[in-house]
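Submission sheet (multi-component)
Chains listed below:
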Amino acid sequence: EVQLVESGGGLVKPGGSLRLSCAASGFTFSTYSMNWVRQAPGKGLEWVSSISTSDAYIYYADSVKGRFTISRDDAKNSLYLQMNSLRAEDTAVYYCARVYCSGDSCYSVFDSWGQGTLVTVSS
Amino acid sequence: EIVMTQSPATLSVSPGERATLSCRASQSVSSNLAWYQQKPGQAPRLLIYGASTRATGIPARFSGSGSGTEFTLTISSLQSEDFAVYYCQQYNNWPPLTFGGGTKVGIK
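Outcome: structure written.
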């Protein structure tokens, strides 16, 4: 069974930093691109960042570019999001999400999600 | 950036009735369109990708159609477990991957 478990959320002051982790199990982590998607309280979904296999491609939403860094450790089956210079508008539940693959084809849609970790940026 | 617009924002439907949700893209996304269902306190669940292909384990009452800029998600006969928020997402031209604002399907 595919499992994604996020951790590392919490309350942080504006300008502070936080590192989110996502522990993956039940699949060959190294062969999947992974993503972070967030959802502000009562709002819709917002894609944050994507990292491909072997770190070949890394992308960010403009809203976090230069402040957030995505990374992965395939030996530990883990995905990370380093968040610096946090702002009130970064307050959200952050989900770790796996792309969907069928055979040799992968699609930039998300078939497995974690339960999310809440990040609150407030003084 | 491709902007995805969903309508209506809220839809009230009686159990057993059909629900039709719309998603419009600001430019063509071909058939690279997905639909998700999200219930309160839960992560989203992938329903449809490729505009019309059901994901694994998704019941046949969920169907997707459309291409280019206009898409539809139809739930043929609403069950109690289908009352939720539905999001569309384009993956044709990214970054960024973009989602619609969601349609909340509630009980009439």
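Remark: Chain B touches chain A at residues 32, 34, 36, 38, 43-46, 49-50, 55-56, 87, 89, 91, 94-102 (CB under 8 Å).
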